[in-house]
């Protein structure tokens, strides 16, 4: 998996992300929409645990789930360094299992776009519903239609970090709503030579109306969609759409 290979560089690649501001935004939604004080929070597709640990530092009892062992290894090492107690689980978001219910679930960085089959998206949302308490919250984001058509489209990107070069080529099929990412990673070895890794990933574009329908079928009530952390309305023209939903049982 390419994300296993990218794990040591993942946080550097996403260094521009303000996790504190993002967590503030999540807490504002919780304060507005959750009755009481949530304790148990799931970070689905947690990656290297940046958001998981940010929320843990605010007093939440966190569980982090990710499919990549290498990503979780980075997360575990950082949580140990901080002395932070988090339950880390290596599981697929289409088939995950928890030991009980949680009050809030979050899923960041367009992870749901990686579910290229609408049926897989339904499976994931049904599981989120299953493990949320009644009136619990699901807060997540997706890449919007605008991002697929203007930022991804048929573009190429080159990212360089110490000891690694990543070449990222995108090919978007508007009719199928699928964007293929052809990723080549050059990783420096101890002798100074570079090892090459190639991987293909795909994201699916979901319109906001599709997401609303999927949420409803899974028993999740749509609360709102936002284009930024200032709660401006999110639409298909937004590059990233932040969405909040409530579990109805």
> What's the SSE pattern?
HHHEHEHEEHEHEEEEHEE
The geometry reads as: globular
- Say which CATH homologous superfamily of the largest domain is assigned: Vaccinia Virus protein VP39
Low-confidence parts: none
Question: Percentage of helical residues?
Answer: 25-40%
Mean pLDDT: 92
Q: So how many helices? A: 8
Radius of gyration: 18 Å
CATH topology of the largest domain: Rossmann fold
Strand order of the largest sheet: 3-2-1-4-5-11-10
Proportion of strand residues: 25-35%
The computed structural class is alpha/beta
Q: Give the end-to-end Cα distance, rounded to a whole number of Å.
A: 37 Å
The name of the CATH architecture of the largest domain is 3-Layer(aba) Sandwich
| Strand tally | 11
What's the domain count?
2
Largest sheet: 7 strands, mixed
